[in-house]
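Hey, I'm writing a tutorial for new members on how sequence and structure tokens pair up, and I'd like a real worked example in the thread rather than a made-up one. If someone can provide the structure for the chain below, I'll link this post from the tutorial.
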Amino acid sequence: MTLLGSAVHRALDRVRSGAALDADDAEALLAASGPDEERLAALAGCLRDEGLAAAGRAGVITYSRKVFVPLTTLCRDRCHYCVFVDTPGQLALLRKPAYMSPEQVLQVVRQGQALGCKEALLTLGDRPEERWPEARAWLDDQGFASTIDYVAHIAALITAETGMLVHANPGVMTEDELRRLRTVSPSMGMMLETTSRRLFEERGQVHYGSPDKDPDLRLAVIEDAGRLRVPFTTGILVGIGETIRDRAESLVAIRDAHLRHASSGRGHVQEVIVQNFRAKAQTAMRDAPDADLDEYIRTVAVARLVMGPHMRIQVPPNLSDPREFARLVAAGIDDWGGVSPLTADHVNPERPWPHVDDLAAATADLGYTLRERLTAHPEYVRDAETWLDPGLAPAVAALADPDTALAAAGSRVSAVENAGRIGPGAPAASAEATSVPRPSPRSGATRLAERAADDPASLDDAEWVDLLESTGEALDVLARTADDVRRYTVGEAVSMVVNRNLTSTGFRATPTGEPGTFSLDEVAEIAADAAALGATEICVQGRLPDAEDPAAYLAIARAITAAAPALHLHAYRPQDVRDLADRGGLGLPGALAALRDAGVDTVPGTGVKVLSERVRALVAPDDLDIARWEEGIITAHEAGFRSTSVLFYGHVETAAERIAHLRRLRRIQERTRGFTEFVPIPLPGPAGGVPLVPGRAAIDEHRAMVAVSRLLLSGSIAHVQIPWTRVGRDTAATLLRSGGDDLGGTLLDGRVRPDTGIEQGLEFPRADAERLVARLLRPFRQRTTDYREVSR
């Protein structure tokens, strides 16, 4: 046995005997390999299960349903892997405020409240006023002594107005600041990241020039939080240049600080996050490799062994491929952290959250049950007298299950009624009970746009029509408001999929040589060529000619899947599926099952102009009738397919019919959760179609449509796609500032039968899209069809 193997065995034996591991033990375990690595993970999993059983929730893995509130993206630090931070110059070009206003915060939080969120995560840069005069000027103008002072105000406001609980994550805090925030935030957090002084002191390393990343300073915050009895979240980053010894020492330092401040057998660190580094474009570490998966798994397991059975070990699910979940669970995790149904992970904007239902299914597949918790973990909720400020205890108790102290099933947050005080000696924050100057009176257009952002369901049809018909300054306000909603929900990233279209109407079982037609053999060549060019998706749609066997829908799908199995097959509109169902004698469920078996992954939600029989009869009588289209899309969603959604505008429809269409899509989404995006598509024609408002410029028609779509669908359909093929690239850039966040597909023509794709001759190569997005000072993200991250 090697010296390392002997050290690993000694460390594992110490765990089995109940002894605490030191840094030498942890370092040895972090280097384990082969059978020793398997023993390490197995012991970590057993220790986790022991701890869950002791806590009275055997087999339960937890998460928190949250909204992510990026209160300010200014920061005095210069971390080499961060895309969260902006400079004042960038903010000005982005037309982005130095700090979110209370109104903007509540707009996001109330939408999260409507979706059942109970946690508002406040995250921000460290002490920006100490580097940026613009931050100091904003705070002075608004009457706040510091950024932390503003955090405290916003935290109290959120709980008072919505009943949601705040998890404050403002970076390094003094003991006095921790004491103040404890009165408004039942839990707080700050990642230790690493104890490595080399990464902080050595020029060129990730934390050089970042005063708040001094390991000693961050450890002092963790110690202060313990003295003040703050339920605290901390953790380490894996893969930022630290050594295995650094990881070992970081984990032991967290454990020791936790134990030094134990009360009634429990320390203040409620969860330890083990987070894997993911390289991001436009950062100094953009070319660095992601954290090695095997090293990451070992670190998770060692964190469990160092921390023991009663600590919650958390990993962010959006930073791992779902196929890696099994290894993470086996290595001893018991918490997925905060997951949002509304907002992006603004720190990792390229990594979308999994949907809670999908996360629950994946957890169940691994033998565990997913349960929602509050921002303070159950042990701290039960012992509220020790761990929670008395002013916050009623708000926490209102959301807690009395038996488990997890989130009460079906509980909905609401404003704190007659809560008395949030924080000792301070009235609950509200517009009336704050020293901050009230905003100047706003115009009727501004108030209406803000209501739409705050609570889309509160507007009646006439009010939505007023917004859709906005002109002049009112339209500018509408577009800015919609863009703020986009910014603070789905985030700043502009996404795009690399794809190719294939129009199935052109299929011929017997080749004819006609332009735009293709044979089954050519399908395979087209798919292989698309994959070779870097496409991740092929989109196939169009009703087969009546002379062709409807089984060709399935044959095309099989040929694509066989020739390019890695391609995502996005295929067949409801009208096409209905043709297969009817002429193929399969029925609608049977047709969808056959398409799934043939390799179809998602379906286009096109084949409808406006969800109005009046409009269909006038402009598209050959389309499916509206009821059958709706039945087709709902049945597809319920069969497990996700789809796009669209509205074609600028013909005979009225403003009211557009609003009715959007409302109907929202109702379908509430039922099925199947739409991935919404695409407002202008019909071609003079000046871009028939304007709703006579004389209104085409660009303003488009701005109004995109902005209203973003506001009305917010909290329901996350992504608003800009159809660049219809509006052109320059207009697309403008619409990305009116609430849009996606550019659709690159539409590669390919080298094999390029004439067979709808909109052939129009390409938007990724490099061109990146340049357009860079001019907007927003990050570009290549996505998959279903908005996941493309493998590096």
